[in-house]
Write a structure and sequence with these properties.
The chain is mainly alpha-helical and 224 residues long. Helices cover 53% and strands 7% of the residues. The chain has a two-stranded antiparallel ribbon. Strands 3-4 form a two-stranded antiparallel ribbon. Strand 1 and strand 2 form a beta hairpin. The protein is globular, with a radius of gyration of 19 Å.
């Protein structure tokens, strides 16, 4: 993706405190089990179930990745589901699913617009209050407003508008939802684009496509 790679190429020669050991990278890469790389965050514990269709799963990907950041703390925010403890992104994806089973329509744009701090606190309940609760609430409100006002309440329309192209999806996310996905920083007067969570949107859609949950006829190869 040129919008990410071009700034990085400009910055690499300027780095003074970080060196890349390419030989070590190679040695590490040849020992990675390919099956590990093919693992998905979506499995029997995290999938929503047969009552949810393509629109809801696309919304699921949006909501989860809008919230998937900053899990630091001591103690670390942890949830318990059916006797198992989860933290970090493993907890977040299960929290979204748990919210749905408890009647919170968290995949609906109108619901997101009107979501309150009290509701979100209950959704995120765990051993402690999740870090940046107010900020997470703001991001969900913003997400709901864009999808409701610009895409008639359909998360799929947002993806359709990007022609299901991974790079276009990332560009739209960073431009139309900058508070959530415009992940950038400045290094020696150079603007660096990371777009980590924005890139996870098409990556997760591709995971769901491989699981035969996403079935759009215009679907190209989102793995690029």
């Amino acid at each position: 993706m040129d919008s990410i790679l071009s700034p990085i190429k400009k910055v690499l020669p300027l780095m003074t405190n970080v060196l890349i050991d390419e030989e070590s990278i190679y040695k590490f890469s040849i020992n990675i089990d390919k099956s590990y790389l093919l693992k998905s965050e979506y499995n029997k514990d995290t999938l929503l179930g047969e009552n949810y269709g393509e629109e809801e799963y696309i919304a699921f990907v949006f909501v989860y990745n809008s919230l998937n950041f900053s899990y630091w703390g001591n103690p670390k925010w942890t949830i318990n589901i059916q006797g198992n403890n989860y933290d970090g992104s493993a907890a977040m994806i299960r929290v979204v699913k748990r919210a749905l089973t408890e009647g919170y329509n968290i995949l609906n744009s109108k619901f997101l617009i009107n979501l309150t701090k009290k509701q979100l606190s209950e959704i995120f309940r765990g051993n402690i209050e999740i870090p940046l609760l107010n900020e997470r609430l703001k991001l969900l409100n913003i997400l709901g407003e864009l999808i409701e006002n610009e895409y008639q309440g359909s998360f799929k329309k947002f993806i359709d508008d990007a022609k299901w192209d991974a790079e276009l999806i990332v560009e739209k996310l960073s431009k139309e939802l900058p508070d959530i996905f415009n992940d950038t920083n400045v290094y020696k007067q150079q603007n660096i684009n990371f777009y980590k969570r924005a890139q996870l949107i098409p990556a997760h859609l591709y995971d769901l496509y491989k699981l035969n949950i996403i079935k759009s006829s215009i679907y190209p190869d989102l793995s690029n």
